[in-house]
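[Discussion] Sanity-checking designs against the backbone

I'm trying to build intuition for which residues belong where. Below is a structure token string of 366 positions. I'd appreciate it if someone posts a full sequence so I can compare it with mine line by line.
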């Protein structure tokens, strides 16, 4: 770089350095998490084969191990099974790991690392550095090696996000490709509309748990959303209607997928949870469906015996219009609905708040 650079070149140099090192940091975190989980699977598999006291635990091994590892992120019984499966499906990962394994040796010199499937894409560097562990966590559910290798290849080629990989698996892309006469054309069309991943997907639950971060510290998608959520939280607490703050970016597990509720309150008068979802976009039926899902999950998993059913508040905005919808999932009793309408803030009141915050520029992106 020339010492006689212009101010514009100085800015570009700084931005370039930040961008490049951010990418390197993201790759390092993803690789470390992948190798950590692969190692856990390896250690368990080795113990099953060679552990001196393995007969003592037998089928209880994963349960006992989960109890002993309590406190380590994502080391419950289910996850330990998945790490074990990950190791067996992707033995070639060890080929990308030697520098990081120098203080964590492969357990026994005479043990045999599982044979790599001939269908696998095989290149450990590409697999370990181009796919995050969340990608692998989806891929290990695919028993067929050829099918798994197909998704590996397409995922790497298109730089797919985890969400995109999940969508393509659910849409039977592999099966559709097999039935397609012009497979190349189908692949091109699929890749054109695919969602690419960022180098470091900090919203990935595996990543921020691995780093010891809390959901609220990393989940905001934008500065605007973070500011608006801050204002909204304060607004609801100041209403004096009985709102008690409970959680922000509350993580819930539905099936095998993590979701995050923007704001969770407990209403001391209504004796129920109030879930608030904020969308910086226009209203869609998918939005209200998502909130209804959260409300139903809270009703089934978090509602105490003397609680009333939870309620959800959906706030949508495209920066010049606000829409407020209430989710009353599973409420057949009109008395409940009437009582909630009496105690909760009026839709018009919340719409005025949202419109004012956005219109007057108090939440401008910075």
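Best answer:
Here's mine. Compare freely.
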């Amino acid at each position: 770089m020339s010492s006689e650079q212009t101010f514009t070149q100085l800015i570009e140099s700084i931005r370039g350095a930040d961008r490049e090192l951010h990418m390197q940091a993201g790759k390092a975190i993803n690789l470390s998490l992948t190798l950590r989980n692969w190692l856990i699977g390896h250690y368990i598999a080795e113990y099953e084969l060679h552990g001196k006291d393995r007969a003592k635990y037998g089928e209880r091994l994963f349960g006992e191990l989960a109890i002993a590892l309590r406190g380590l992120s994502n080391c419950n019984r289910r996850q330990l099974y998945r790490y074990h499966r990950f190791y067996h499906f992707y033995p070639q990962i060890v080929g990308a790991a030697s520098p990081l394994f120098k203080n964590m040796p492969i357990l026994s010199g005479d043990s045999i690392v599982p044979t790599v499937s001939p269908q696998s894409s095989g290149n450990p560097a590409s697999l370990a550095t181009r796919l995050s562990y969340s990608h692998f966590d989806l891929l290990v559910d695919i028993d067929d090696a050829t099918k798994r290798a197909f998704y590996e290849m397409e995922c790497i080629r298109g730089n797919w996000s985890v969400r995109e990989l999940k969508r393509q698996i659910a849409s039977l892309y592999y099966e559709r490709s097999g039935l397609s006469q012009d497979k190349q054309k189908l692949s091109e069309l699929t890749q054109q509309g695919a969602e690419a991943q960022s180098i470091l997907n900090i919203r990935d639950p595996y990543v921020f748990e691995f780093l010891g971060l809390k959901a609220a510290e990393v989940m905001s998608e934008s500065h605007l959303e973070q500011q608006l959520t801050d204002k909204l939280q304060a607004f609801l607490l100041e209403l004096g209607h009985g709102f008690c703050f409970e959680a922000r970016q509350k993580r819930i597990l539905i099936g095998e997928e993590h979701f995050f509720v923007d704001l969770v309150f407990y209403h001391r008068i209504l004796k129920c949870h109030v879930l608030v979802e904020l969308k910086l976009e226009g209203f869609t039926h998918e939005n209200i469906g998502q909130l209804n899902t959260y409300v139903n999950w809270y009703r089934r998993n978090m509602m105490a015996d003397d609680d009333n059913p939870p309620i959800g508040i959906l706030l949508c905005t495209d920066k010049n219009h606000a829409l407020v919808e209430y989710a009353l999932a599973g409420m057949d009793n009109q008395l409940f609905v009437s009582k909630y309408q009496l105690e909760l803030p009026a839709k018009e009141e919340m719409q005025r708040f949202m419109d004012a915050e956005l219109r007057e520029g108090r939440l401008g992106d910075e």
